[in-house]
Write a structure and sequence with these properties.
With 157 residues, the protein is of the alpha+beta class. It has one domain: 2-Layer Sandwich (Yope Regulator, Chain: A), CATH 3.30.1460.10. The chain is built from four helices and six strands, in the order H-E-E-E-E-H-E-E-H-H. The protein has helices at 8-27, 81-93, 121-146, 148-156, and strands spanning 32-38, 43-49, 55-62, 66-74, 99-102, 108-115. It has a six-stranded antiparallel β-sheet. It starts with 7 loop residues before the first helix and ends with a helix.
Length: 157
Amino acid sequence: MSESAFSQEGLSELSEIIKGWLDAQLSTKTVVQSVEYSHGDRRWFVRISGEEKDNSMVLFTLGQRTLHYETYVMPAPEENKSDVFEYLLRKNQKMYGAAFVIGTENAIYLTGQVSNQIIKEDTLDWILGTLYSAIELCFKPALRLGFASRFENRLDK
C-alpha cells in the first residue's frame, strides 16, 4: 500500500474533524436528522432525510487509511432483477466516489471510501451530497422496477 496508516493521534484528529462537521450539519438543520457515534469503532450512524426516500442511515467508518461510507438503498428486487441491476450499474458509470452494490441478502447498498489524507469539511460535504443525490435520483425508479407488480396494484385501486 502506498499510503501509510494513520497514528492514533492522527485518527483522533480526523475524528474531531468529522464530529465537528456533523455537529455543524445538525445545528444548521440540513438533511442530517441525527447522529450517533460508536467511540471504540470510530463509526458514525447518520440519519438523513430526503424527498424520494424519506430517511436513510449512512454509516461512516474511519479506518487507519480510509473513511468508508455506506447506506442501505432498498431490499432485494422481487422481480425484474436484471433490469434493476442494469439500471444501477449504468448509474455507477456516471458516479464518482460511490457505487451501487449488492449486499447481504441481495439488498442494494450505496458505498464508497476516500483516503484519510483528503478528509476535511469540503470532502465530507461532497460525500454526503453524492450519497443524497444518488438516492434521490435512483431510489424510486429502482423500486418501481424491482417491485413493479406492487406499484401496478396501487394504481388499480
